[in-house]
Structure formats: structure tokens, C-alpha cells
């Protein structure tokens, strides 16, 4: 008998798990609560029919699994790698080159030497050197997460002597657009993991490319077609309300009046989505790890797209900004340079996305548009005289994962106390070491492999590991582990109390 697998949530993780299991001959049904596959990434339309997205998503140099996926699908959805700028109300602050084109230096010297800071003094940049000890000590192991997760990122940087100016003008802006919250609200463990993966591990890691259209159209649509070609079912507007179980095995997934029989279930929804499912599910509420998800949180996002009356001069297509709002990071993108449909548009089309945007969600569009334009003009003055001819704004409450201090204990692993229920998503614990979309996709493949391991049907997915640490980092981590082991086994035994 062919096993029936139900996957809940049609984002990167859910589509990844469904795609691989369908290829291996499983009867897979993917349930998506929204109107189309892709969840928040799927996008919307303005009243005039123009495309909107829940923020622009970058695809960084280490995204080996996603790049393998698009090659398998036979699509070419990405721009070339792009350079980026960083702005504050004082103007241009930093320029990031294409690091892969620069002479290679041992990590993290390439990032340090080749990033062009226009205002930040060298003495402040050098104050980051002691932080390398924490970078070496944080090896993504459960023990490392437990050591650093109770500390805020702000405290981490203070403890290691990072200057206040370096923190305010470099590290906190990275947190605001990487972990989507200010340092006092971010786990030090998450900060170290994110910074290492995207910036510090290898010189080229910060290089990024973008989708040449909406991710929903360019990637998810052909992906869903491939899933259906292999026999998988992808069903939209199916909101899961409960599960049925027999002891430690789930036997069905319930969507209102509909029941989907299941030999295994993979949940790949975000934190907010899972909290809603658990709150309404007597079956899931019987298990502590699902109840504990209520201790986790998520962050508000505001995504906007503006159509201007003329072409404006933007030095770089992708830009990150800080200092305009005390606890909010934001980005803006030149879609004329990035997306095919706007390349020949008569006026500039600009995507502006705000993270940790709590203070903006209650404002209506007429109140928001002057604020957004004022922020843009604070970076590039030419925006102040341009006219907005059309716009679209998407409010996304509790939309992205919040890795708050102390949250690690509540993050779910890939397995659960139900023997046939598995998890995927960017907030699921994995030892792969990746982050964001790549991490979500990897955990979806890992969940598919757990199903295959349980049922013995088909071959497991090949998961591309992250690039190994450079030799000097490997040596430093080996020495660090030896010192920790010596301390734990010998020095502690000498203590009287």
C-alpha cells in the first residue's frame, strides 16, 4: 500500500518535502491555508492588477540547496549577484562589493577589509576583534545554543567590547534586517548563527542575488507544476483545525469538515500559523512541545511597492537602512534593475519593506505613503520631488520568526512525540547551519528523509552541506572545544562549591 503523507504549509519547507516525496512514489497531499501555494511569499495584486510581494527575498551565495533546486526545475529565476549600499539619515554609510571577485582573504578578513565604510572610524571597526572568540565558540551545536541563547545580542556585543558606534552603525543594522528586531530583543545565539552564516564564515557569503520577478511566479509556480507532474496534490484554502490520533500516531488531518487520512504528517507552517492550529486542536494540546510553541513570537512586517512618475537615479539596486526609526530596519530595491517586468517601465518602481514595523501597521495608506517617501528621500534626495502615481501596501502582522532571548528551549526539533509527525521551517532546530529560506527548504528535505526512513520507500534527498569552515577556523574551534572539555572535566572537579 502506498503511504499517504499530508504536508501542512506550502512554503519552502512544505514544497520541498512534498516535491521529494512525490518523486519517490508517495501519495502526498499538501494543504495550504492561503489562496495559493507559497504562503506569504506567493504575493498579491493591487487594485489595478499589479504584483505585490511580502517583501523582497534575497538568495545568498551559500544557498546551495535552493540553487540545486532551480537547476533541477530547469528555470533561471535569478539576477546576477549584486552590490549593496547601506544608508542612515546622514546619507550613504557603507558599500558592499562583490566579495567573490576580490582577492581571497582568510575569513573573516575579506568582509572586514573589503566592505567600504564611509563614516565608521577604523578604531571602532577594530573593536570587533574580541568578538571572534564568541564566533569560534558558537559552533551551532545544541550546547552552544544553550550557552548563548539566554543572553541578548546587545549584551553579547557589549560583553566583548564592541564600541557603541560600531554596534549602532553596523551590527544592529544587520540584526534589524537579518533577525528583524533590535539587539536587545534578539538572542545572542541567533545573532551569532545568522552573522556567521551570511557574513563571517567565508568571504563570498554576503554576495546576494534576487528573483527576476515574484518568487511565487518565477519559482513556486513551476515547482508546483513539477509536484503535480509527479502525482502530488497541492490544495489551497485548506486551513488545518485539528488532527486525529491513535496513541502516538496521527491518523488524519482535519480541515473543518474535511478529513485527510495520513500515514505521516509534516508541519511546515510558521510560528504564528502553528500557534493557531495548536490553540484549536485538542489533540496537539495534549503534547507539551506543541503547547510550548505558544511561548514563541513573531515580528510584524510592512511591505510596500511604489510606482513613481519618472525614472530616478539609484546607485545600487538593493539597499539597507537604519537610524530612521529606533527599533525598525528597512530596505528598498530598484525593481527596474531587478525584475524583468519593470525593466522598461517609464518610471521607477521601488519596493520598500519595514521589519519590526509595529508602529506602522495601524496607519492607513494615506498616512504611510508620506512617511515612506520621506524615508526614501533621507537616503536619496531625488525621491523628495518625485510623484507617486500608484502604490500597494501589505501589512503582515506576526509574519516572520522572532528568535528572542530564551526562545531556543521552545523551538521544535524535526521530530515530535508523535512517532509519525515531523517538522520543517526556518524556525525548526537543525544542525545544517543554514538560515532563512535555505534553512526552511533544508528542513523540508530533512522531514521528507525522516518519512523515507520510517517507511523505507524511495531514496532520501541529497542535502548539500554548508561549506566547511576554513582550516584556521577549524583549528580554532578544535582548540576551543579542548579547552572547554578540560575546564568541564578537570577544573570543575577542583572547585569546593
TrEMBL record:
Q: Which SUPFAM superfamilies match?
A: FAD/NAD(P)-binding domain
Where's the Amine oxidase domain?
13-452
Its transmembrane ranges are none
Xref: InterPro entries: Amino_oxidase, FAD/NAD-bd_sf, Zeta_carotene_desat/Oxidored
Look up the domain of life of the source.
Answer: Bacteria
Locate the coiled-coil region(s) and give their ranges: none
Question: GO terms for molecular function, please?
Answer: oxidoreductase activity
**Name this polypeptide is given:** Amine oxidase
Q: Which organism is it from?
A: Prochlorothrix hollandica PCC 9006 = CALU 1027
Amino acid at each position: 500500500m502506498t503511504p499517504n503523507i499530508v504536508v501542512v504549509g506550502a512554503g519552502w519547507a512544505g514544497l520541498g518535502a512534498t516535491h521529494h516525496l512525490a518523486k519517490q512514489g508517495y501519495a502526498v497531499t499538501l494543504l495550504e491555508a492561503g489562496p495559493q501555494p507559497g504562503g506569504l511569499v506567493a504575493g498579491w495584486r493591487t487594485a489595478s492588477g499589479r504584483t505585490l510581494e511580502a517583501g523582497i527575498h534575497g538568495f545568498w551565495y551559500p544557498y546551495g540547496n535552493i540553487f540545486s533546486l532551480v537547476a533541477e526545475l530547469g528555470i533561471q529565476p535569478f539576477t546576477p549577484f549584486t552590490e549593496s549600499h547601506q544608508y542612515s539619515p546622514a546619507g550613504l554609510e557603507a558599500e558592499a562589493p562583490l566579495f567573490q571577485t576580490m582577492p581571497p582573504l582568510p575569513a573573516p578578513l575579506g568582509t572586514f577589509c573589503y566592505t567600504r565604510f564611509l563614516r565608521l572610524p577604523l578604531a571602532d571597526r577594530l573593536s570587533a576583534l574580541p568578538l571572534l572568540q564568541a564566533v569560534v565558540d558558537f559552533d551551532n551545536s545544541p550546547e552552544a545554543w544553550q550557552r548563548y541563547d539566554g543572553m541578548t545580542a546587545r549584551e553579547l556585543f557589549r560583553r566583548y567590547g564592541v564600541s557603541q558606534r560600531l554596534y549602532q552603525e553596523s551590527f544592529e543594522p544587520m540584526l534589524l534586517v537579518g533577525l528583524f528586531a533590535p539587539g536587545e530583543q534578539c538572542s545572542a545565539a541567533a545573532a551569532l548563527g545568522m552573522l556567521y552564516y551570511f557574513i563571517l564564515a567565508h568571504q563570498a557569503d554576503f554576495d546576494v542575488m534576487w528573483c527576476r520577478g515574484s518568487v511565487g511566479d518565477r519559482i513556486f509556480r513551476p515547482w508546483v507544476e513539477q509536484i503535480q507532474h509527479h502525482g502530488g496534490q497541492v490544495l489551497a484554502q485548506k486551513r488545518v483545525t485539528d488532527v486525529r490520533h491513535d496513541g502516538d500516531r496521527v491518523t488524519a488531518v482535519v480541515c473543518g469538515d474535511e478529513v485527510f487520512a495520513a500515514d505521516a504528517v509534516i508541519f511546515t507552517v510558521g510560528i504564528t500559523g502553528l500557534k493557531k492550529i495548536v490553540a484549536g486542536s485538542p489533540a496537539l494540546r495534549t503534547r507539551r512541545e506543541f503547547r510550548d510553541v505558544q511561548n514563541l513570537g513573531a515580528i510584524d512586517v510592512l511591505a510596500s511597492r511604489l510606482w513613481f512618475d519618472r525614472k530616478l537615479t539609484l546607485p545600487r539596486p538593493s539597499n539597507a537602512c537604519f537610524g530612521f526609526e529606533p527599533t525598525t530596519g528597512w530596505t528598498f530595491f530598484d525593481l527596474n534593475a531587478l525584475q524583468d517586468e519593470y525593466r522598461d517601465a517609464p518610471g521607477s518602481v521601488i519596493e520598500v519593506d519595514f521589519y519590526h514595523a509595529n508602529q506602522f501597521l495601524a496607519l492607513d495608506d494615506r498616512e504611510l505613503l508620506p512617511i515612506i517617501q520621506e524615508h526614501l528621500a533621507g537616503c536619496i534626495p531625488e525621491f523628495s520631488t518625485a510623484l507617486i502615481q500608484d502604490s500597494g501596501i501589505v501589512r503582515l502582522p506576526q509574519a516572520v520568526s522572532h528568535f528572542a532571548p530564551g526562545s531556543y528551549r521552545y523551538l521544535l526539533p524535526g521530530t515530535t512525540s508523535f512517532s509519525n509527525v515531523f517538522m520543517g521551517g526556518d524556525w525548526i532546530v537543525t544542525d545544517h547551519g543554514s538560515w532563512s529560506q535555505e534553512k526552511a527548504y533544508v528542513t523540508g528535505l530533512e522531514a521528507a528523509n525522516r518519512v523515507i526512513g520510517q517507511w523505507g520507500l524511495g531514496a532520501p534527498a541529497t542535502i548539500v552541506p554548508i561549506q566547511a569552515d576554513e582550516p584556521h577556523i577549524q583549528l580554532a574551534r578544535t582548540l576551543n572545544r579542548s579547552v572547554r572539555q578540560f575546564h568541564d572535566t578537570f577544573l570543575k572537579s577542583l572547585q569546593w562549591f
